[in-house]
Amino acid sequence: MPLQMLVEAIDALVDCDAAKFADPESLLELHRQLSRLDAVVTAADAAFDASGTWALDGAYNAGAWLATTTRQPKPAMAKRLRLGERLRHLPATEAAWAAGDIDAAHAAVITSLHSESSADILARDESVLVEQAKSLRFSSFTQVARYWADRTDPEGAERDFEAQRAKRDCYLVESYNGLWFGQTRFDPIAGTIVAGELKRLEQELFDADWAEAKARLGREPTLSDLRRTPGQRRADAFVEMATRSAAAADARRPVPLFTVLMGDKTLDHICELANGTVVPPGSLVPFLIGAELERYLLGLPNRTEISHRTRLFSGATRRIIEVRDRACTHVFCDRPAEDCEVDHIVPYSDGGFTTQENGRLLCGFHNRLRNQRPPPEEL
């Protein structure tokens, strides 16, 4: 029986020292086979659901039967069953998952695109989406899927965003002993605004803590030497945000900055936040009054660089590299542009120019790593 052979094979793996599979090739193969097994289990769960045999034990539905017998959370089982049912309409996705070329996360993204209104278009484009899932970083693939959904049903995308915004919520309540507890829910744009400012203030407090520890110890501190934990700094950043808001009640309100990319047809119809979150164009309309715009023309043959022999990237040259790359360009990193440095591809010491073509974003870690040893081929 195939199932018995699987049990014996897994028993043999369990009996081995896991360190024997810690090399990159073995790990990749293990994950591939794990995805394939997950695909088989999901398909079997869906078939079990369709069979109705779960009712013989008096279970309310297949999800309840599986959650009880496997001792897993009901929401997780319900999610798996929905995924298995939707896969029946998406043969290319099901085949790619069974082959180990994609996993459950990719399959969930693609199946989430299926609806009565999108079924015919998805049937046409499914293979293309699967190929994107095979080749792209997961975050990039989810962007592709979101753009596909928005272009397939633009009005639906606008409705979905408004529904998200309608769910916004925030509360802050005082407990009996004087502590305050809260929770927030924001739409993508509002969340980005709040998170960005919170991150900026938290970094200010981190820099202050680092300077204080260095002065107190007389040496470069470690994270354990800082007076505040990350959670404490975030809490203090919230307080600082409120304090500055009260102090600047009559100050000029900050305005959003919109970056417009022109001249490259591959960028047509892109509408996303700086952190990569895809949003429908209509969601930006309320922010257009008073907003600032910066326009970048890409692909112009007669572009002039200013001071290409300067040591550091600055001004418009730096900004266009930030807009173009948007994150660390190392294959194993996705740190956002604001956390990156602009690095010379051909080192400045070797005659490399400070130009767009010779610049790229690297986070501090990978910039230092690049100077310690030859970069991998992907760079």
| Number of extended strands | 6
The major β-sheet equals: 2 strands, antiparallel
Low-confidence stretches: none
Classify the helix fraction into a percent range.
40-55%
Helix/strand class: mainly alpha
- The helix tally amounts to 14
Net shape: globular
Mean pLDDT: 88
Strand order of the largest sheet: 1-2
Q: N- to C-terminal separation? A: 47 Å
Helix and strand topology:
Elements lengths: L1 H14 L8 H28 L10 H9 L3 H14 L3 H8 L5 H9 L6 H17 L2 H15 L1 H13 L2 E6 L5 E6 L2 H30 L12 H18 L9 E6 L22 H4 L3 E6 L17 H11 L14 E5 L14 E5 H9 L7
Parallel strand pairs: 3-4
Antiparallel strand pairs: 1-2, 5-6
Descriptive notes:
The chain has 379 residues and is mainly alpha-helical. The protein has four domains: 2-152, no CATH class; 169-247, no CATH class; 255-300, no CATH class; 304-379, DNA Binding (I), subunit A, CATH 1.10.30. Helix content is 53%, strand content 9%. It contains 14 helices and six strands. Strand 3, helix 12 and strand 4 form a beta-alpha-beta unit. Helix 8 (138-152) crosses helix 9. The longest helix has 30 residues, at 188-217.
